[in-house]
Amino acid sequence: MGAVAFIVLLLQVCISHAWKCSEAPALYKVQQVDADLGKVLAVSGNRYAYYLNGLRWNNLHLYNVKHITTGTTGTWMVDSKNGLNKLVGGTFVKAPGLSVIQAHAGGKDFLVATNGKRGYCCRTSSATTYKGVGSLSWTALSVSYQFKQFSCGRFGCWGVDIKGRVYHAQSITAANCKSVGWRYISAGMKMVEASSDGLVFGINNAGEVFLSRTYGVGWYKIPMCMPMRDLSYNLGKLWVASVSGLLMVCTH
């Protein structure tokens, strides 16, 4: 069976449940995807960053990209040296100070990031107005958990620690980054995506995709035809990148 025929067969399996999935515009071995405010960004297998323009991917001409995210505070990129950069006037400028391994800009007007040990929040006034001069103002969210991944959405923030345990803070105030009510949710996850639409998705260590509508309590499995590595949800579309680098878009 040829590679094209095999992909078609997989996609037919993918539409056999409530979520209908189809192949997204092709991009070389997608490693990470992020969607918010109608924008879709991705990092390819050769670590270039792209944005989706209609049915075509436009190269942002960035190399050695580890992670990219967009939201109300702007578009941000983590480079291979764990430096955080913001898109300003069509060019990414580095924000000196905190070294991070992952960032998420999808919260309510604030930016969160983690250095692999602790989660941090950057206030609205600092993140949205940053233009490449000076530094960002960070506030530690919690000293109790070693977070490797963060995501914030309509109903608070989620963090995944180095052991795959998920924690949730129901409220983080954008004005001062004060977090309230951290609590343990579940285990066995390698990432969680909290969307601005209010839904929460997760991928477990086996690459299985889950959805929760109740703050992560009670995960509903979304059958997929292959193990997944990353996902993002916005405006009714679930973008999922497989371990092999195939990008799909699913609707419910």
Question: Would you write up a description of this structure?
Answer:
The chain has 252 residues and is mainly beta. It has one domain (23-251): Methylamine Dehydrogenase, Chain H (7 Propeller), CATH 2.130.10. 7% of the residues lie in helices and 50% in strands. The chain has two helices and 24 strands. The protein has helices at 3-14, 124-129; strands at residues 20-23, 32-36, 39-43, 49-53, 56-59, 65-71, 74-79, 84-88, 91-95, 102-104, 111-114, 119-122, 138-142, 147-153, 156-161, 166-172, 179-186, 189-194, 200-204, 209-212, 220-222, 228-234, 237-242, 247-251. The strands form six sheets. Strands 1-24-23-22 form a four-stranded antiparallel β-sheet. A four-stranded antiparallel β-sheet has the order 2-3-4-5, with no helix packed on it. Strand 15 (156-161) and strand 16 (166-172) form a beta hairpin. The radius of gyration is 17 Å and the shape is globular. The two termini are 30 Å apart. Pfam families: Tectonin. Keywords: Signal. Residues 1-18 form the signal peptide.
| Cα gyration radius (Å) | 17 Å
> Do you know the CATH architecture?
7 Propeller
Total domain modules: 1
Task: Provide a count of the helices.
Answer: 2
What is the number of strand segments?
24
Poorly predicted ranges (pLDDT <50, ≥5 residues)? 1-13
CATH superfamily: Regulator of chromosome condensation 1/beta-lactamase-inhibitor protein II
Distance between the termini: 30 Å
Mean pLDDT: 87
Q: Which term fits the overall shape?
A: globular
